[in-house]
Amino acid sequence: MSMKTRLLGMTLVTVTTFGATSAIAADTTNVQGLYSADELMDADVYLKSDSNREIGDVEDILLGEDMSVQAIVIDAEGLDKEGNYVIKKGDFTVQTSPDDNLDNIEYRVTVDMDEKAIADQPQYTNDWWQSSKAQAADAWDHTKKGAQSAWNSTKSATANLLDSASDAIDN
User: What top-level branch of life does the organism fall under (predicted)?
Assistant: First the structure.
């Protein structure tokens, strides 16, 4: 079976934990419909620059407040500097060999970084988790407040516009 590239995290989300926002698009020529997080766990991980070199496997999948994929954690036992690294969305792709039988689906993750760049990624530790969780919560709170403020401004402007239109009709 041929491998089709699939990218995770269809929702565009701003999360300051990972620095920048990136949109992730899907290959719509052969849509699979559903993807299995269970099958993605332990998927083999490769470097884009050396597609034959397995560097580890997927250890965890990190979700944002809206439950979209924000990052994966790879257990990079095949690197000179071994460890569990956080790889944000946009820096990896997932290929899947689709099958009608769930037991036959296989995922392959390719990281769009070289070995040094992976080693520079955050280590997946409790300290990282606590810090990132707090930063993400703050980002969501800020987004929520910004949306509330925008709604109030729009509501006020609309009310003023309607009042002005009503005054114009009355005169």
Answer: Bacteria
